[in-house]
Write a sequence for this structure.
């Protein structure tokens, strides 16, 4: 059994890395299909997106629903447990925006505009 020194280590192990927090943040607004996530996160590859979603599903944070139709349809959504990360993700987002203001004087100089639905829940 792995030992941890502080809870931050555990949190970062589960949601850390380049993409997981971004994927989770987009899922806080509701169910998304794989292609929707790819549009929201254009720099991620299909392989990496699938891998990250599988890891999040394994950890009980994301639920995957497969609709057996032609063509097959798959949707991802946060589980109730995954929704408990919402305040963490909102805090990450707010801290990042404040940091951009501090460094650049105006976050709009470097922060792309997200669709309005992304900020609905803040």
């Amino acid at each position: 059994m792995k030992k941890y020194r502080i809870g931050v280590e555990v949190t970062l192990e589960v949601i850390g890395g380049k993409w997981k927090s971004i994927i989770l943040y987009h899922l806080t607004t509701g169910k998304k299909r794989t292609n929707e996530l790819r549009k929201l996160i254009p720099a991620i590859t299909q392989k990496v997106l699938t891998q990250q979603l599988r890891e999040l599903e394994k950890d009980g944070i994301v639920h995957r629903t497969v609709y057996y139709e032609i063509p097959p349809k798959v949707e991802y959504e946060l589980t109730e447990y995954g929704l408990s990360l919402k305040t963490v993700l909102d805090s990450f987002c707010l801290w990042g925006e404040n940091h951009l203001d501090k460094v650049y004087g105006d976050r709009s100089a470097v922060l792309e505009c997200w669709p309005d639905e992304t900020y609905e829940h803040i």
User: Anything to note?
Assistant: Helices lie at 7-15, 20-27, 34-40, 46-58, 80-83, 86-104, 116-119. The radius of gyration is 16 Å.
